[in-house]
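> Could you send the Molybdopterin molybdenumtransferase prediction when you get a chance?

Sure thing. Input:
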Amino acid sequence: MTHPISWDDARAAVHGAARPTSSRPVPLAEADGAVLATPLVTLTALPAFDTSSVDGYAIAGPAPWRLVGQVLAGDASEITVTPGTAVEIATGAMVPVGTEHVIRSENSEVENGAWVTAALPDKQEWRQTGEEAAAGEVLLPPGVRVTPGVLALAAACGHDVLSVRRRPRVAVVVFGDELLDSGPPGAGRVRDALGPSLPGWIRRLGAEVVGVTRAADTLEAHETAVREAAATADVVFTTGGTMHGPVDHLHPTLSALGGEYVVDTVAVRPGFPMLTATLPGPGAGWLVGLPGNPQSAVIGVVTLAAPLLAGLSGSPLPPLSSVVLANDVPGRGKDTHLALARLTPDGAVTLPHAGSAMLRGVAGADGFVIVRPGDNALAGTKADFVPMPT
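Output:
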């Protein structure tokens, strides 16, 4: 077994080696959750014309103002406001030429339906052309994930389609003759917890799951399963078999298929061992080998899967956040310790049931507190935090 690399180096190595998937234009309705392949640029100034912020009157000159017309949202009015006149205006309507002020309707009085009087406003009540963005301005760089807010912005500045990265395709292969697909565990058999849960984690990271299969604990079955999965996906995720025991066939499978390691074991606890490798030939370019213990596998997801899928999507390395600790968190010697934690108003609270095979802590956690090698994190201090995929 090679010497494990640090947790931080593993994340950076996987992300740095990934090459983004191809890009394609899609209608706005299909872009949610995808990643921008090109900058989002305004096709027009925002707003594209002077726009009233209120319902009221566009006026010029001193009061009183003779009411001469009306302009509603959507009108391309040719009315000109001249000194001594007023034009009734709706919120969102185009401000007429010649307007000096827009006064709110609730601050105005109209006599005989013809004359408007009001005190002049203290502030401008309309949005000027280009106030939010100039035409051609870059609003968002490539690599940003498309959210409903991004879609709204794209529509507002005139886009009908967006150029986005194709979602990475992922196939999951679950190893382990001891695993049950249904019913309660017993008599040496345990339920498969990763086959049902990994697709959810992967989708939350922006990828498309194209299949979940099981493979028997033989070298031939491992090779066949990985080869078939690789033909349909950009990334093959496997669970279990990452050690060198009598039924751990992942390393021999990679050797037989011509795989090349990018990360071979990471100095992290829980989570040891995990790996990533590239696969030759057509089909999938990557394999991520996750440990068989469920919590260790989730740590493999935040350690290797999240950076890899971000790189394939053209996104930056997922950033870590900072939290204040509500309790002491011990280190793990020369390894990085990822401690399950829930975020509370009092700070990050580490959780019980945090063994590598346990899932109660995973089910209630917001993410992991990070304690670097040779360190202990004390209550009241800040620590890095890696969130669960959301």
